[in-house]
């Protein structure tokens, strides 16, 4: 039903509905039984949030954050696959988008989704924009699978010359060595 769901979202103009209605709509979605399929949740994440997140130029409203948090609480995997991937791949500074992803990592996402975000970050070339996201992941002090931790350390080592004068990078390396000292040699 993907084309029908996309058509319904377009018909209802969900991508541009007022944010206070977005909160209500997300509350209604969470009450549905059975739960939405992964594909349906991904379509809704894209339709409800993607355009709004990518166009942020200032801190999001409390209504928008409430809608994001509620949707993310139940459908975090499809949400991360759609939104976080788009934010990470978006060219430019994207300061508000980066702050939003950091806030979601710190406050909303379950441990498996925190690891998913880290793996998504490590799939793209590191930049100053992405360092706070990795820092937010490390602040959660989640247990990382050995292969993900190895990839993080390898990526940081490979990227060291590009960040020779970056204070954020130095803080990130220090955090990795502090949080995962027993696993990093």
Automatic annotation (TrEMBL):
Gene3D superfamilies: 1.25.40.480. It holds the Pfam family FA_FANCE. It comes from the Eukaryota. GO terms for cellular component: Fanconi anaemia nuclear complex. One of its GO terms (biological process) is interstrand cross-link repair. InterPro entries: FANCE (IPR039685), Fanconi_anaemia_gr_E_prot_C (IPR021025). Residues 4-184 form the Fanconi Anaemia group E protein C-terminal domain. This is FANCE protein. It comes from Podargus strigoides. The lineage of its organism: Eukaryota, Metazoa, Chordata, Craniata, Vertebrata. The gene is Fance.
């Amino acid at each position: 039903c993907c084309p029908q769901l996309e058509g319904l979202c377009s018909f209802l103009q969900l991508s541009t509905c007022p944010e206070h209605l977005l909160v209500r709509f997300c509350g209604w979605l969470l009450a549905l039984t059975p739960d939405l399929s992964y594909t349906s949740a991904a379509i809704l994440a894209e339709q409800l949030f993607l355009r709004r997140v990518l166009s942020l130029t200032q801190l999001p409203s409390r209504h928008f954050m409430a809608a994001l948090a509620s949707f993310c609480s139940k459908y975090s995997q499809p949400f991360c696959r759609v939104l976080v991937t788009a934010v990470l791949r978006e060219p430019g500074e994207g300061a508000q988008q980066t702050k939003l992803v950091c806030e979601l990592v710190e406050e909303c996402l379950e441990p498996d989704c925190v690891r998913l975000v880290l793996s998504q970050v490590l799939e793209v070339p590191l930049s100053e924009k992405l360092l706070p996201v990795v820092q937010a992941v490390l602040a959660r002090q989640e247990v990382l699978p050995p292969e993900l931790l190895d990839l993080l350390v390898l990526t940081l080592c490979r990227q060291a010359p590009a960040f020779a004068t970056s204070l954020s990078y130095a803080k990130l390396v220090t955090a990795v060595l502090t949080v995962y000292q027993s696993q990093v040699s």
